[in-house]
Design brief:
- The chain is mainly α.
- The chain has two domains: 189 residues, MFS general substrate transporter like domains (Growth Hormone, Chain: A); 197 residues, Growth Hormone, Chain: A (Up-down Bundle).
- Helix content is 86%, strand content 0%.
- It has 17 helices and no strands.
- The longest helix has 34 residues.
């Protein structure tokens, strides 16, 4: 049973490797599309927006379908949509069909999100926090290795469409691997007996806190990563390569953090991990901004990546414990909250930077914003989350 479960889990884990690669492909091909294809940077930014908006629109309905239908089937649909997008982007010239490919990519990513998060916790119901952190770690690995593979293809062939075709090949291989593993109902239909008890109270105060925490912590954390290389260029006058290295290591901190939390999630406890993450993000984020040298700042930035990493996986784990029949829907809801934060915080930070003329002062809003969920967590949310998780455990 263990061997079979491990193989099935591997199939789910590598789906997030694919989405991690997908998340970086546009950034990798943009310079060549701009110089070789004459595509304006504004249009490339629009492509990113189209893909993100498609995912945002589809993620809750896709998660709901994963709850109601076959999770593995929804996961396969997501892979098929990404494969279709890869074919369109890989063979069609730039134009309307390129944006259609972005819609297919975003929608496919949405279908894979809810299904994969739910499926992996169904496989390992005894340690949802651990396996979810592991799943999201594979997203980070794909985000690190993808640009290397895309960069190699671009260097060898000077063709911006080859990275998209490479994504299509990876999607086919993952789809074939999943197809030979039967994710039957005895595995993916567990814990359905709790649904009648919890269905009436989907958005209770504890889960509303998780939504708010996702909005603030993920939104501010993603914005921190977006501006950290600019901070180093302006504050420490480092080279663009050094600043890019800081960004890469910060993302590496996120990936390492998820590996770390995956090993200790059930031992430490979900509430303690959330507390460590929020307080740690506040301290290390402030440390990055107040550092006197670029080396110290880089160390703090890496640690910030470690502490910002558990919010999404642990929130889904808690939501899945409280509402096991709504894992896909909750994944979609949390994704929407995180995405809204990731859209609003950059605008606020950018506005403050323009008005003050100081990127460092503007970025203080990012770690300081974590004070809000920390206060709510220490006053009420911690107890509410503990009660919800205890009640769900008593239903087992």
């Amino acid at each position: 049973m263990r061997d079979k479960r491990f193989i099935k889990a591997a199939g789910v884990l590598i789906t997030f490797f694919l989405t991690g690669m997908l998340n970086t492909v546009l950034a990798t091909v943009t310079p060549l599309m701009n110089t070789q294809g004459g595509v304006p940077l504004l249009h490339m930014g629009l492509a990113v927006s189209v893909m993100s908006a498609s995912r945002l629109i589809a993620v809750i309905p896709a998660g709901h379908l994963a709850d109601k239908k076959s999770k593995s089937g929804i996961l396969q649909i997501g892979i098929a949509l990404i494969f279709a997008g890869a074919l369109v982007a890989g063979f069609a010239p730039y134009g309307f069909l390129f944006y259609l490919a972005m819609v297919l990519f975003g929608t496919g990513h949405a279908f894979m999100d809810g299904a994969a998060n739910a499926l992996i916790t169904d496989l390992y119901p005894e340690k949802p926090g651990g396996v979810l952190n592991l799943l999201h770690m594979f997203f980070g690995i794909g985000g690190m290795l993808g640009p290397l593979a895309f960069g190699f293809l671009i260097k060898q062939y000077s063709n911006w469409q080859y990275p998209f075709l490479f994504i299509g090949v990876v999607a086919v291989l993952i789809g074939l691997f999943l197809s030979v593993n039967r994710y039957d109902k005895t595995i993916t239909g567990i814990s359905q007996g709790k649904s009648k008890t919890k269905a009436k109270n989907l958005l209770n105060p504890a889960l509303l806190f998780l939504c708010l925490m996702m909005f603030i912590m993920i939104g501010s954390s993603n914005t921190f990563k977006s501006f950290v290389n600019t901070l180093f260029v302006y504050r420490f006058a480092v080279t663009a390569m050094y600043a890019s290295t800081v960004l890469a290591l910060t993302n590496g901190g996120v990936t390492f953090g998820r590996l770390l939390w995956s090993m200790f999630a059930e031992k430490i406890g979900y509430n303690r991990i959330l507390a460590l993450g929020m307080v740690g993000t506040l301290i290390t984020g402030m440390g990055t901004l107040l550092s006197s040298t670029p080396l110290i700042g880089m160390i703090f930035a890496i640690l910030t990546g470690v502490f910002m990493s558990p919010f999404f996986p642990i929130s889904i784990a808690i939501g899945g414990m409280v509402h096991p029949e709504k894992k896909g829907t909750l994944t979609g809801l949390f994704t929407v909250c995180a995405s809204l934060g990731s859209m609003i915080f950059p605008a606020i930070c950018g506005y403050l930077a323009d008005q003050s003329g100081n990127i460092k002062n503007a970025m203080f809003i990012l770690p300081l914003s974590s004070i809000i969920p920390i206060i709510l967590f220490l006053t009420k949310a911690r107890k509410q989350l503990a009660i919800q998780m205890k009640d769900s455990s008593n239903l087992d």
